Amino acid sequence: MKGKRSRRLPPWKSKWHWLWLALSLAASAWLILIMPASEGMGGMKRASATMVAAPSSEAKPAEAGKHHGKAGATAPGAAEPSAQPPKKRHHKKAAPADSETAFWDNILDRLDTIGSLLLMVGIAAMIGSIIEARRWHLVFGYILGGFARAMRLPPIVSVAMPTALYSNAAANSMLVASHAEGKINRSALIAGGMANSYLAYVSHSLRVVYPVIGAIGIPGIFYFGGQFTVGLMFILCVLLWNRRRTLRRRSDEETPTAETAPPDEQPQALPWKAAFGMGCRRVGTILFRMLCLTIPLMLFIEWLTKQGLFEFWERHAPDWVHRIFPSELMGIVFAQIGGLVQSATVAAGLRDMGAVTNPQILLAMLVGSMVGNPIRTLRRNLPSALGIFPAREAFTIVLGMQLSRLIGTAILITLTALFIHYTHP
Predict the structure, then answer these.
(1) Membrane-spanning residues where (predicted)?
(2) For residue 170, which of 200, 147, 136, 206 has the smallest C-alpha distance?
């Protein structure tokens, strides 16, 4: 119990988190200082424009000196001393000032980018927390539960679906208990378990949907919208499959009327004051963790990219692959190991640099999802299912859901790559 309570404490109530924050801020400041000013997030364009303009201004006196030397052949010695001193004065006085200005512009632009990113993520997290506290997302579960009744599923499956939005273990336990009592058959157990898995995935994703969309915008909408839609289509196919099997067997005995969910287990909507309090705690926790982990990770991956860590991709990948999936996207894929919020933050930083586009961000996040799904399955989904379902049904549900997500993600990756290929020649 103590371990569970300590996990729920806000990070600002732990002295170790404050130490972590201090070290992270120091590391972030150091990365900003050692980052090349000409390749900064927002200051890259400004610094590059300064560097382009400087040689052009120096070239004009040199060219004028050449023309003057050709025209005034009677005094060749007087032309060279007059052209040489201004060139030396320009390099000694103007260059340090320009580099110092570019350096501070780089610092200010980075702080502005990080500040706006934290603001957008905080606003989005507050909206998501209020939706969760007021239980508005449960409407989707009740709608799908009604659809399950239309698919000739037993009433317990319709009751378990909304329950899965806040407790997947409780929803699956209801199905397993009914199956052990002989009230639902194996096909209904598998169909209900897959539906619960999808709803639990949606419920868990809602906690990061809003911060991710707040960080990267349109790519986040397409990322979650595409995966939710593909998963929903698969669940509808499973329910239709169960309906067909049920109609073939004509099992009318599986219609118990006394099965209802205990009223005390249904989550109640929080009052508005408590909802805002929950939102403030959620926003504070997300922003605190972003300062501890996400911002240093974003700057570190940017620094690694500029140090040529991903040059192997440019050397060995074919030109058409590198055009669709440039080396900068590798940082987004690697950052997704730490979570979607970290990946979205890195993507937002690269986009502010002008290194990637919105379709490329979507492609990188989909690739990261495909790479990380098998790891999450072995680490979390499969052990959890084996602890509730019989082994045969557990493997069927988990492998079926993961295979559907793998195929759906592959389809989304293909469509995104084709869009980039034909719209960004």
Answers:
(1) 113-131, 138-157, 208-241, 286-304, 324-348, 395-420
(2) 200
